[in-house]
Amino acid sequence: MINKWIDPEAKAEAERYDNPIPSRNLILTTIEQLQTAQSHPELVEHFQLVDQKSIEALNHRLSAMVRDGQLMKDGYKFQAATDQPSHEATIYINSKGLGTASIAGHDDMLLPERELRLVFNGDRVKVRQTSTDRKGKPMGFITEVLQRRVKQIIGQVAEHEGEYFIQPSNPNKHQPITLEKQLVEHANAKVGDMLRVAIDDYPTREELATGHVVQSMADKADTEIIIPQTILEFGLPYEFPEAVIAEAESFKEPSAQDIKGRIDLRELPLVTIDGEDARDFDDAVYAEKRAGGGYRVVVAIADVSHYVRLDSALHEEAEARGTSVYFPHFVLPML
């Protein structure tokens, strides 16, 4: 068959296929030159494809280009994906392993399995729409990973055809971490043992993540594992940066300047309902009977903003954490 188009990659296509079809670059260039989205039949007509194998091959290529983020499919029409805006998003993966990119002010984008290979739950990414599913929900393609949420993970040692890896739990069950056999042997670990590993190389669409052993948890009870495992799986911050600690330790007892313009009520026997092991005494109350009847009630609220100033290390850390996270007998404080 004599091609009726000029393709700069014609030689490479001819080496790969008995019946060459337009290359990806030619398809993209053609759509851009036509300045309008094209359907599969329209492209078949444009390239004057007549044999069924070539027509089907073009359809598969268009689908692959959508999968790889080169084209955006809207209904039956294809257009260059670079024309689509990209958005910053947070990755969320549910208990069934289905992933979405959550975008502030926009509908969530569903992520196919191929895209989830790139990321862990909680990662920050740039994403753009490539198509819609049968229910009309947007499907996304990850163009860039901006921030990695998960640095370490706790999982079970597994083995397949002589290769060892750590199998995490949900929401990162889709991301096995490969380990060299020597590392497993050095940790005296066996299949089924729990290990804490640090990630050395993050995954790509083609390759799994790699890691090294930080701690064997084979001798730990399930109840001792679940809290650190949850902290690591969800990328919860469990250590304060040195700058935050230094700033917190720099505070002294209130000075005269601090108290200026305030009424000093420290002599009141204020009461809190916090437990004896609490560290965040952010509110307290005091009540006394009044001579003429009724009660005088004082509610004291901690003035956090006096210490945590805008653009300070403490403020940035509190903003990143968002809230304190409570576990049984354990808490990850916001500050």
Task: Give an overview of the whole structure.
The protein has a five-stranded antiparallel sheet with strand order 6-5-4-7-8. It is elongated. Helices cover 25% and strands 29% of the residues. By secondary structure, the protein is of the alpha+beta class. The mean pLDDT is 89. The longest helix is centred in the first third of the chain and has 16 residues, at 52-67. A hairpin with a 2-residue loop joins strand 16 and strand 17. The protein has helices at 10-16, 24-34, 40-46, 52-67, 113-116, 181-186, 222-233, 242-249, 256-259, 313-321, and strands at residues 38-39, 71-74, 77-80, 87-93, 99-102, 109-111, 124-132, 138-147, 152-160, 163-167, 177-179, 194-201, 209-216, 283-289, 295-301, 325-327, 330-332. It folds into four domains: 10-81, Arc Repressor Mutant, subunit A (Orthogonal Bundle); 84-147, Nucleic acid-binding proteins (OB fold (Dihydrolipoamide Acetyltransferase, E2P), Beta Barrel); 152-233, Nucleic acid-binding proteins (OB fold (Dihydrolipoamide Acetyltransferase, E2P), Beta Barrel); 242-332, no CATH class. It starts with 9 loop residues before the first helix and ends with a strand.
Structural domain tally: 4
Query: What's the average pLDDT?
Result: 89
Structural class: alpha+beta
Helix content: 25-40%
Instruction: From the alpha carbons, calculate the radius of gyration and give it in angstroms.
Output: 29 Å
Percent range for β-strand residues: 25-35%
Low-confidence stretches: none
Shape: elongated
Tell me the number of helical segments per DSSP (H or I, 4 or more residues long): 10
Number of strands: 17
Distance between the termini: 71 Å
Walk across the major sheet and give the strand order. Answer: 6-5-4-7-8
- Summarize the biggest pleated sheet: 5 strands, antiparallel
Strand/helix succession:
HHEHHEEEEEHEEEEEHEEHHHEEHEE
